[in-house]
Amino acid sequence: MQTLNDTIDGISNIRLYENEVSTVILSNLRKGFGQRPYQLEAFSRFVSYVENVNPELKSIQLLFHMATGSGKTLVMAGCMLYLYRKGYRNFIFFVNSTNIIGKTRDNFLTPHSSKYLFGDSIFIGEKRIQIREVDNFQAVNPNDINIVFSTIQGLHTRLNTPKENAITYNDFEEKKIVLISDEAHHINAETKKGERLSREASEEAVSWEGTVNRIFRANEKNILLEFTATADLTDPETEKKYRDKLLFDYPLKQFRADGYSKEVKVLQADLPIIERAIQAVILSQYRRKVFEKNKIQIKPVILFKSRSIKESQVFYHEFIEAIRNLKPSLIQKIRKNANSTLQKAFAFLDANHVTIGNLIIELKNDFAEEKCISVNSKEESEAKQIAVNTLEDASNEYRAVFAVDKLNEGWDVLNLFDIVRLYDTRDASKGKPGKTTMSEAQLIGRGARYCPFVLTDGQSPYLRKFDEDIDHEMRICEELYYHSAYNPRYIEELNSALVEIGIKPRSVIEFDLKLKENFRQTEFYKKGIVFINERIRYDWSDISGLSSTLIETVYKVSLKTGYTKSSEVFGNLEKVKPKNERKKYPLISLGIPVIRKAIDRLEFYHFSNLSNFFPQLQSIIEFITSQKYLGDVIVEVEGTVEQLSHITQDEKLEIAMNVLENIATIIVADNIDLRGAVDFAPVPLQARLKDKKLSFVIEKDNHGEEGNNNPETDADFSLDVANKDWFAFNSYYGSSNGKHFLGWFNKIYHKLSTSFSDIFLISNHRLFTFYNFQDGEPVIPDFLLFLTKRDGKIKHHYQILIGLKSHQPSHNDKLKDIFYNDLWLQMQMKGPGEKLNFKLIGLSIAVEDIETVNFERVFDRILR
Fold it and tell me: Is the pLDDT of residue 379 over 90?
């Protein structure tokens, strides 16, 4: 049976809605928000569903199943903006936790909050809109986004025991309303009991789910959007309920595989509790110093998790006392028995001249009592709740949190790097993880949210950066450590639970990638260079007008003709539809006053905003009349002959606004902060080309792998390159596509050797990164090919960047393909007694066609 997910997948033009996403959603979200590929897909799926599957907007109920930390609230905000465009003004956000309510209010309503989701101003069409919190929908501003915030419990109570000025069922009958359900798995209690209740009884039951169903069905134009990270789609009734409602499925497993979470490590230690705690403290301080060494101000936090409130309170005081009386002998004892991670920590401290005495002073200060916080009961003070929800803030000095069950739904802390389990119990049943172990695995999953940072300008702050460089000192800053007592059976059960929820791969294998010794001895390695480009800030100061594309585009506008169609009950009389014609006009011919009025209605075109995009613009009149801006813009108007012979002032205004909105959309979409430099600088090859430790994820037992390819199981495409002098490394560990390419290259090597004296192929493994000319996005070639040939006193060096592509490339793949095709640079340098001619070439190869592709056609730019 086809699911909704399948239906959306089958819509071939889903990407056509990227422009709508950019215009309505991205332009109104906080700058840079919503740009992750899976978020863009979520938005595009939603817009595509509205436009293709249910354009009448009747009884829409959709589920977004998205991993914790993936930005569910951001997607809610984007959907709200798009539904405003579709005429919706009233929204109700409900969830089971008051803590989440408070956070979401900040996300939606508090512009000075660090987690506010919207831009400084929100414009949809010609309207500037506000987002307001309301108690009901009876007297709201029809131009605003009006939101009621409630817990599901409170909503259920308020609707079934109505009070004055409170929201009522009538609100949902009289006005079309969007219901947004966060942590939506909490409203499926009756669904799961479906086997024990009749369908009618289940739907009408006075329950949370029954209340939600009743208000959703009160008006056929009401919309219900559900968001959760933990939908139990394995439950038959739940799967049946969401079969035609699951719009977007982005589970934790994919979230982690795509690099948006910390990697999880489990550390066992057969030590007393307090010594395990000090181990975690040392590791946390090591991580802080690594951050500081790289000029990043992030304060790592530890969670000490107890089984009961009493145990937590007792340990809190034991910990404070242990830190206060910390002695070198205890640090020495821990160092003597250190695992490999702690050995790295102590080696780092030694290398940076941090003595044990200095370390103790730091720990006594950073983990003093005033920097530890206990939050064990629901009745904790509001000040404590604020403190634990702002642990990332620079003004918040807490380093340790003591709790029983704090890391639950709604606690969104990114700088948590260590969780210390202070008890040693198991609750496995029939070889499967028990309820407590699954709860602990989910806790780890929530704690594994990536803590954003960048090392170089333009790096994505939200992605792991060292998956292919696991020996890098910053790798520790991308890992969450779960500290446990030594209990192999429990750890096995916990690992099973972590794999089940998707935060840990089934297994990971590591390989040492080493340069061949004979390659190290070559003159190419010792003296060779590689040309690299950098990511640079886009300089808007030299922009003196609209792009030629914008000016040369003919903008098409259709006027409303007033045509109506009618027929009699017992006849087929029908008015004849008038024939439309098209006519082109210079936009300026509509009249400066008309264009000025349109500009006044669209805040994007207010001079203070326009000057950000066009720094050389002197006035609005120049923007309207100059040939560099709107002066040469042409609009093609469609209408009746009568309309085109005498366009009214209102129609002229409609035309002008339509054209200006289209132009604004493209300007915003083309607004980029970074780009790849077109100038490439030479860098010594030895500085970048080094041995490397590689890590490969294997997701399935005995059935190959998902995501990264397992080099040991891809026997069909394996290639022994140990004896190939043209290959720089001792082996190739990578994808099947890469191995397929190497097999082809081995076949055509002898043809290359007839033209070139030196031939060296290097598998990249993120050793070399280049940047796209248009948007500055990183381009990481699969291989770099270096060729050399001599022509008299001229020595020709070729550096070819090779990207492997598939038949169905993504939008980003297409941009990279353009980068390879545009890459054709030539540089000359003087060498001892000869001229050095360097050519830098991009080569994009479709692996599926590699066996049939003509050799000369692939290398025509090199061989000619």
Answer: no
